[in-house]
Amino acid sequence: MKLNEEQKRELEELYLSFLNNEKIQRMKDIPMHRGSNCYLHSFKVAKLAIRNGLRYKSVDLKKILIASILHDYYLYDWRKDRSLRKKHGSRHPHIASDNAIKDFNIDKSIQKIIKSHMWPINFLDFPDSKEARILGVADKTITIKEASSSKAFKKKKEAYYYNYISKLFK
Ligand SMILES: [Fe+2]
Ligand SMILES: [Fe+2]
Asked: Ligand 2 centre and the CA of 86: distance in Å?
């Protein structure tokens, strides 16, 4: 799928509006794999999902972008609370979706994409669209990369990653 300049600009603007959004910035306070945080993680996933999505002939990139940015919008630190930790893997996509409805009024199709990102852990939430499968793959790819680098290395690279996510296309 080839985007024209207008389409690129539209997606970039949408991406930046989330990047600079105060509510979204709260994800910086949610720790993630090995020194990463939820904000960095989500925008890395969004960039990869869009890159992968561009390989398809017809796919809704806007939906992929919004669902990627909001897929882990659960806004709590599961490491701090045993009761949250227990079912975090299967519960957080639903909590993220509910928070995203409240703060960004996302539609049903985006809710579905978010809820299915942990499949097959969430066996009943099958990713039944191309968009959902693209997010699932991008999330797992970034998660493996984050989890396999050391915490010290991660911290050192933090400035690099903030620069990396500062734009969708670069
Ligand atoms: Fe997740
Ligand atoms: Fe994720």
From this structure: 17
Does residue 12 lie in a domain region? no
Two tokens, residue 31 = 């720790």
Summary mean pLDDT of the chain: 93
Task: Kindly report, residue by residue over 63-112, the tens digit of the pLDDT.
Answer: 999 999 999 999 999 888 778 787 888 899 999 999 999 999 999 999 99
Backbone angles phi, psi at 112, to 5 degrees: -65, -40
Q: What is the pLDDT of residues 99-156, one digit of tens each?
A: 999 999 999 999 999 999 999 988 899 999 999 999 999 999 999 998 887 776 677 7
Q: Output the CA 41–ligand 1 centroid distance in Å.
A: 10
Q: Please report which ligand is nearest the Cα atom of 44.
A: 2
Closest ligand (CA of 122)? 1
Residue 103 Cα to ligand 1 midpoint, Å, equals 18
State which residues form the domain around 111.
Answer: 31-75+82-164
Domain-located, residue 49: yes
Is 35 among the domain residues?
A: yes
Q: Evaluate whether residue 25 is within a structural domain.
A: no
Query: Exposed, middle or buried, 109 (CB in 10 Å: 0-12/13-18/19+)?
Result: middle
**Residue 43 sits in a domain of what CATH number?**
1.10.3210.10
Dist. CA 17–CA 24, nearest whole Å: 10
Work out how many domains the chain is built from and give that number: 1
Q: What is the pTM of this model?
A: 0.95
From ligand 2's centre to the CA of 41, what distance in Å?
7
